[in-house]
Amino acid sequence: MKRIVLFLLTNLAVMLVLSIVLTLLGVNRYAGPGMSMGGLLAFAAVVGFTGSIFSLLISKPMAKWTTGARVVNGTEGPQEQWLVASVRRYAEKAGIGMPEVAVYDAPEMNAFATGMSKNSALVAVSSGLLQSMDREQVDAVLGHEITHVANGDMVTMALIQGVLNTFVIFLARVIGTLVDRALSGNRDSGGGFAYFGIVIVLQIALGFLASLIVMAFSRWREFRADAGGARLAGRDSMISALQRLGGDDGQSTLPKAIQAFGITGEGGIARFLRSHPPIPERIAALRALQPT
Known about the structure:
By secondary structure, this protein is an alpha+beta fold.
């Protein structure tokens, strides 16, 4: 689940840094207690979407850097040649541009897709996946990842996160104003540093709640990608790949930032903290599909 976590952390970091910089520059006073609701919402949208768009733009180079993925073109050997050919075949079927193909060294079975658009994507697989799965299973995993790209999941994620960021910033300032006035005896303090300290704390707390919505979307998109993988590579192959993944007891070594974009993700202390549904549920959903 590393890719989503990295996306969320980058996004939150950008928002916090922007808030602090704007405070130091004095710009934030225009988004303080005296600002109109419409102006505050516009301010929140600009700051909120900046974080999510920036996260989207750097998603591919960040994924390469954090995993140490090496891009292959098929000339490296028979395995890489087959890998690139398989990705190209599914990309053509899905009607998207040819993604970059990469392999990264990791013992667990995993793969991910990322990128700022359907025609500028990266599909990467771990060395552990290539060593532990047969070609039919790897094929299904590639179909799953290509479906993520074809569905525009990263762009949708950025848009959802941008909207959530906007409301996090907006609500943090509205609630911050009420708290600040309550603490100052109902006097308008003018949006001083105490007010912005309250706002920062509220942004972190509300940002965590917003991340639960992103995780819910992430779980839903995994079911869609499984179904897409089944259409491209065959339902039995997709089920077989998930069954193989379900038997992998290794902990994911993907960076936290992109774990959510892996085909399998680490579980949280509760279901709503997970970026991926349990594998048995994913298999059951595939078995419920009509054969194609």
